[in-house]
Specification:
The chain has 227 residues and is of the alpha+beta class. It contains seven helices and twelve strands. The protein has a seven-stranded antiparallel β-sheet, covered by helices on one side. A three-stranded antiparallel β-sheet has the order 1-11-12, with no helix packed on it. The chain has a two-stranded antiparallel sheet with strand order 7-8. The longest helix is centred in the C-terminal third of the chain and has 14 residues, at 201-214. Mean pLDDT is 90; it is low at 213-227.
Length: 227
């Protein structure tokens, strides 16, 4: 099947939306001009650079979160993990601007270290962010921000202080009302060009598939800085 901009608009958009998955969910905490707290999820969100760490969030239409970020210049991205799927979906409802979604749902918050908005106390990972740029796009407003601090629950860390994906269990957005939870991972190191040319690439892939099939965890070796 081939679709393009001349195809039925809904079919074209939904095909792309269901193909580019899973999308990480930014559960954004922000503060209004009068000090009210707002919490809402956004899945058109991604890291865009790592040095410095920058991320992007896309907003469509009029959003309380966007208005708040414009006012304070900062916000918190609480990453959604297993157990919070229903709560984050509830906060997507169209409440009045003065409604504190976290308080409404009984979600505890705690003071952030650098930015104004508090973070969710139960979040496994929370990113403190400062907005750096806003860009208008057809049908959307993109906000770019620098991550100035990261809070990580010790319970999701391995003995080296790195995030263990099987403990972290992040939730991703699929198409429509579908979600997924990442519960396992496998490692495929990037080989040298010589190894690929020598035919070793197929062996690396076969080993990775075997590890995934048998459930045998592969040690997480350090990834070279050039990777």
């Amino acid at each position: 099947m081939y679709l393009d901009t001349s195809s039925e608009h809904v079919d074209f958009i939904w095909m792309i939306k269901n193909a580019v998955v899973p999308r990480p969910i930014a559960w954004i905490g922000s503060v209004s001009p009068d000090g009210g707290y707002n919490l809402a999820p956004y899945s058109y969100f991604q890291l865009v650079t790592m040095d410095p760490p920058m991320l992007m969030v896309s907003f469509t239409g009029s959003k309380d979160t966007l208005d708040n970020i414009r006012h304070t210049g900062d916000f918190v991205v609480n990453l959604v993990t297993e157990g919070f799927e229903a709560d984050q979906t509830d906060t997507a409802a169209l409440f009045d601007a003065d409604v504190d979604e976290a308080a409404l749902l009984g979600l505890d918050t705690t003071q952030s270290t650098v930015v104004t908005p508090p973070r969710l106390a139960g979040a496994k990972v929370a990113l403190e962010c400062r907005a750096t740029e806003e860009k208008e796009m057809p049908g959307a407003t993109l906000v770019f921000a620098e991550v100035v601090g990261v809070h990580t629950d010790d319970g999701v860390l391995d003995d080296r202080g790195r995030i263990d994906i099987e403990r972290y269990r992040p939730v991703g957005r699929l198409g429509g009302a579908l979600y997924t939870t990442i519960t396992s991972a496998y490692r495929i190191p990037v080989p040298s060009a010589d190894a690929v040319l020598a035919g070793h690439r197929s062996g690396v892939l076969a080993g990775a598939v075997a590890d995934r099939t048998t459930g045998t965890p592969e040690p997480q070796a350090e990834i070279p800085a050039s990777a």
